[in-house]
């Protein structure tokens, strides 16, 4: 293996730059040339490649977003798109590819390995929804962003003695809601992975207000539905003054936390190791704080579940 490439794909996540830096520097450490592919799989198809010297990844470890840009590519889903991508990789004499992204991006990487081109995945998404790994790059930062926002909401919620519904991202996964919910002492956490009863949520609000609570926070994962709808229902059922905040893409930006920078650095380096060991068709994962390689097929066969012990504890503590 002499030359490897790296791209970022799907929704960006804080820490992707730290992962790119790690791939580039670890690659150079082993005497490899490293090429960056811009705009994800679209860049593979369009041949949008740039050489990545050591200096090209200076001053990016602390930056959110991705210096390689990202995209969700429709054209790469076609057989012609995949053929063109492999053709360009071969034209550039690239021997292996690191794909930093989510589940969909890994399925794309596997299309390449099925065509005989070595590719490995590095899990980068704020959603933490990739089966086979305990954590993904960007999740910790997103949770910290959410709690910082909710801390601010708390101030005004207390002043006005209101109930706040905060809708958070996560696509079909409730991880951000669960972690932010425990970290912020939310009254209720609504996630797609657990059933909920509006009556119970309303009862809990009533218990809190009887105890003299000045405000309430309810976190709704976007996979459950619209926070605005939930807010309307709660207002109708309680008559309490209710406000809804949809945090949206704020959760995707910002400087990565120390935890995400370390995770990204470890995972990027492991991806290079996997390619050097000819362990393609794998994704990097972290399990019990060990960074390992996991076959794509094994990961695709698993189902992601948020850590429900955290959800259960949050429920107990919000009594
Ligand atoms: O996958 C990351 C994510 O931010 C999800 O939480 C969200 O559902 C989705 O991407 C939003 O996608 P887009 O940036 O395309 O609107």
Task: Write a short abstract of this structure.
This protein has 319 residues and is an alpha/beta fold. Helices cover 43% and strands 18% of the residues.
What does this structure look like?
This protein has 319 residues and is α/β, with parallel strands linked by helices. It has 2 domains: 3-138 and 256-300, Rossmann fold; 140-252, Rossmann fold (3-Layer(aba) Sandwich). The protein contains 11 helices and 11 strands. The strands form 2 sheets. It has a 7-stranded mixed beta sheet, with helices on both faces. A hairpin with a 2-residue loop joins strand 10 and strand 11 (290-295). Helix 5 packs across helix 6 (175-183) and helix 6 (175-183) runs parallel beside helix 11. The termini are far apart.
How much helical structure, as a percent, in the residues? 40-55%
Distance between the termini: 57 Å
- List the domain count as a whole number: 2
Topology-level CATH name of the largest domain: Rossmann fold
What is the beta-strand fraction?
15-25%
Largest sheet: 7 strands, mixed
Give the ordered list of helices and strands: EHEHEHEHEHEHEHEHEHEEHH
Look at the helices and sheets and give the structural class: alpha/beta
**CATH class of the largest domain, please?**
Alpha Beta
How many individual β-strands? 11
Q: What is the alpha-carbon Rg in Å?
A: 21 Å
Number of helices: 11
Shape: elongated
How confident is the prediction overall: mean pLDDT?
A: 97
Residue windows where pLDDT falls under 50 for at least 5 positions? none
Based on the coordinates given, report the CATH architecture of the largest domain.
Answer: 3-Layer(aba) Sandwich
Strand order of the largest sheet: 3-2-1-4-5-10-11
Bound small molecules, which ones? Answer: 6-O-phosphono-beta-D-fructofuranose
């Amino acid at each position: 293996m002499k030359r490897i490439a790296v791209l970022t794909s799907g929704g960006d996540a804080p820490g992707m730059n730290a992962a790119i830096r790690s791939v580039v520097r670890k690659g150079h450490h082993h005497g490899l040339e490293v090429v960056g592919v811009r705009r994800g799989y679209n860049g593979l198809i369009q041949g949008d490649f740039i050489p990545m010297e050591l200096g090209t990844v200076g001053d990016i470890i602390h930056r959110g977003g991705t210096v390689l840009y990202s995209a969700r590519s429709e054209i790469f889903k076609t057989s012609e798109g995949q053929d063109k991508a492999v053709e360009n990789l071969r034209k550039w004499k690239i021997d292996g590819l690191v794909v930093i992204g989510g589940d969909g991006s890994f399925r794309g990487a596997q299309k390449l390995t099925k065509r005989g081109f070595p590719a490995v995945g590095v899990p980068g998404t704020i959603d933490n929804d990739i089966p086979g790994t305990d954590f993904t790059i960007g999740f910790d930062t997103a949770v910290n962003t959410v709690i910082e926002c909710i801390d601010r909401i708390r101030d005004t919620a207390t002043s006005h003695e209101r109930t706040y519904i905060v809708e958070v991202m996560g696509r079909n996964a409730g991880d951000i809601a669960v972690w932010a919910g425990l970290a912020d002492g939310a009254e209720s956490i609504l996630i797609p992975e657990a059933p909920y009863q509006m009556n119970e949520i309303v009862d809990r609000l009533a218990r809190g207000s009887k105890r003299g609570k000045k405000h309430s926070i309810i976190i709704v994962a976007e996979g459950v539905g619209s926070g605005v709808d939930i807010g309307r229902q709660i207002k109708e059922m309680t008559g309490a003054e209710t406000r809804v905040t949809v945090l949206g893409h704020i959760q995707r930006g910002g400087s990565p936390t120390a935890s995400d920078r370390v995770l990204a650095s470890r995972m990027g380096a492991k991806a290079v190791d996997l390619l050097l060991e000819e362990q393609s068709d794998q994704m990097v994962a972290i399990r019990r704080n060990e960074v390992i390689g996991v076959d794509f097929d094994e990961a695709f066969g698993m189902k992601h579940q948020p850590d429900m012990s955290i959800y259960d504890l949050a429920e107990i503590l919000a009594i």
